[in-house]
Input
Amino acid sequence: MPSPIPSARSRASVPATPAVRRRRVHYFSGFDPRGAGHYHRLFSQQGERPQPGGGRIVTGERQRAGERFHQWTVDWSPQDGVAGDVPATPVRTEQVFMSWDDIIRRHWSRQPLALLREFARVHVAMLRDVGLRRMHALRPTALLTALLPLLYLLATLLVGGFVAAAVAALPLTALGQTGLRTVATGVGLALVGMLVSIGAQAGLFWLMRIYHFTLCLGRGEVEGLDGRIREWVEHVIERQQADPVDEVVLAGHSVGTLVMVEAVDALMRDPRWQALQAGRRTGMLTLGQCYPALTLLPGAGAFREALLRLSRHPDLVWLDVSAAIDPMCFVRTAPLAGTELAPQAGPLPRQRAASFFQMYDPLHWAAIRRDKLQAHFLYLMTPDRAGNFDLFAMLYGPRPFEQQFADSRRR
Output
């Protein structure tokens, strides 16, 4: 059993947080092989949109920082009537992309036979190691999403077989029995291929790759990840040693919330970081997390213990944001829910359910609802209007992350 850790300090004991003028955000992407260039473009484009909370965002050019890292500046300035208690002071944020797309590409299978093997491994593990009932108890939608590739493949094979049988039953005597069977088989296979292609475009193979990678995480089969975690920790410490900023936030999306856990845990236990952060707390933001997909695996003991330590850490400010429309996340589910360590978990993370449906115009929202997998990326978008969550105001705006964390208690 892990050694006891003091519970998080109460809000009343936390001193007033000074205004933020400089911030550093270390960002962990989800399971996406496109890397830093794609995310720099995405954040730049979204930052150029009118910000519903007021202010203006200007994103700088992407620069390499050594072999593994990329970074760029994001400048927020007051504009368009920033109101209320929002300070009207400019803020510069250094965004650091915590690269691991090379590891992702090594697990991005493209060959049909490799995908079929991964398909089989995932569903055997779901039945044998996790259990459908346990997943259903935590979030039925997440279970349905996990089963979606299997259901789609079975439906595709059934439709292909039915069409082939229907063609074979046609009274086309001129073709002969052998020719008719050949035509029927060809039509069935063509239909199956077309449906598989449609499924791939809809993201079903992406889902399967995610689930297989999560299984590999739980079984310790991701080569190079331990070394990458050490590199991440060293980089966070070295950047703050070389160029101290007012606050540091580590943010992850989707599977990025899984790979960042042991990095944040190692960082918070490092004496150098503790000395650097004396008197200040470290921010952690997780978006669209899918922790139970990993914590329920028998081999993920070290991961569960790291989550337990983080849940009770007195110097961590951890906000977890999920959304009901997101079919992949476990909305408002505690990271250790359903595990033997759940009763020992501390008060972190503080959870917020993003009310995206209130933050988009009706026509825009109707289009979003038609593409549920794309809804998994809403956390990274600038909404049409203000609501209860705005990533760009949170990561780049003038309000301290710790203050936003404290405000989430009232939501």
In short: Confidence is low (pLDDT under 50) at residues 1-15. Strands lie at 22-28, 56-59, 63-65, 69-77, 91-98, 247-253, 282-287, 316-322, 350-353. DSSP finds 16 helices and nine strands in the chain.
